[in-house]
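Regression check, copper (II) ion case 576:
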Amino acid sequence: MPRLADYLVRYTGTKSPANMWGTEVAVGSNGKILSVSTRQEGMAIPSGGYVLSGHGEAERWLEANAPVGATVILPGGTAPVPSPTPTPTATSTTSPPTTGLAATGRWSISNSPLPSRAIHSTLLRDGRVLLLAGSGNNTGDFDAGTFKSAVWNPTTGAYKEIPVPYDMFCAGHVTLPDGRVLISGGTEGYAGHNGAVGYVGSKKSYVFDPATDAYSAVNDTIEGHWYPTLTKLENGNVWSVGGYDNRDGRAKVSTAVEMYDFAAGRWLPASGTAQTGRYWGTYPHFFLMANGNLFFTGGYTFGDSPSATGSVIHDWRNGTSGDVPGLRDRQLRDQAGSVLLPPAQNQTFMIAGGGSTDRGGATNSVDLINLNSANPAWTPGPALPGPEGRMYLNLTTLPDRTVLASNGSTGPRAGNVLRAATYNPATNAWTTVAADPVGRNYHSSSLVLMDGRVAVFGSNPADGSFEMRVSIYEPGYLFKGTRPTITAAPGSTGYGAGFDLGVTGDVVSASLTAVGSATHQTDTNARLVDLPITGTGTTRRATVPSNPALLPPGPYMLTVLDANGVPSVARMVNVR
Ligand SMILES: [Cu+2]
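Current build output:
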């Protein structure tokens, strides 16, 4: 039987005959959905099972109601008895499989499009979002000196446009311990434009203050940086490397190690921090480790991997490094996704997908590493759902301690993949969820908002256009009924400090999530830290971890999670 418009067809045999214009789910012999295939030629039919193939209305029904793991009951049938699982199961009780919106979540597109190109997005301590464009990859705006930014209120949808004092396009940024945002580097010249030898990196640096919505200048960095990474350290200072300098008419990458002294409010001279003399690439994915060292996951942007093994542990205090073994596809991690998995105490990192802007090609491989181990090495993890390799993946840590993987494309700035999934570190498995209806690749970023929704910004495909629609994802936990709440918490707290935490609901855990600051699909300061709690009922006792390298000083979103996997709306807490 052919699959006609809006048909839902069940195919048995070895392979579905359907064309690519639909969604299919493979149902195993136990009646459970094993995998989901969207917009691809007919999928393989599992032995003893079948494929449900939907078009149009039926496709949308499958997307909303048929996640991996759900049980399918055919008309007139009964649920098949699952065959025994040979592997040992966890001792905790398992809830019935979630279905519908509670399983898939829901995407929508914000009513008001962006007023300027959102290349960089930062959640401010007041819950608003700072969006930076600078010239926004537009040489006309660059020549005119038209540099833009805006603050977006995700509750009202309103934008406030704020002029920018220099071209922050492709700068680095991070939230400082006091909640202001440090922005450094960016664009002083476009490659091949006005005689520039390549993209010329800016030495400029500014701090944005959400209390006044104004930028104030700080001193210049040692060299110019186009695509620098800014990583906040345990002492609140900011370590920064990477990017192109290309100044004075000469092609040159930057090997300068920059250090922002938070207390002094300025960048230090070269003598003020350990230099490496090494080029670390463009936007190298450097994260702070719990022992205070820096971890380069292997994710980067453009060109070749700056590491022989793909991954490095670096001691910023003395400038020494050691290669970390085991990373697969090290030359396909250009614009891979990197994330410190929740909770940060486990020190387990994931790298997912990536490709090569220069050579083409992309991977769907996922590798994991536990830096708490005595001899850390990458090991293979479960591949991204779907057969295609993807670069430009947005990884967003959600308050239910899973990671959302969305967006991306099969090649450089083309071939969008509309597929999303969540990864649960506790089960080491992906679950397919609803997909962002907007295709997004280069120059996209994502943030989790204080209410637990996710906002995704940008995309700058090869035709030079820019995606001005904002996508909003409401994860499945927003469709599971009453949310727990936080009724009392301090506005600021210190390392090792205890405080009373007022809650409603069947709260099982609490966490502190660093406010996001993302660009080019990456936030190297992202982390969700478990906040240990004791007691029962409406007043719990929380104890802030004593190690500032686990949670460097700054604003954090405090959330509680209930037994049903539903998080509260966040409260902002400053950790000092
Ligand atoms: Cu860029």
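Comparison notes: The first helix runs from residue 57 to 65. Helices lie at 57-65, 101-104, 139-144. No diff flagged against the previous build.
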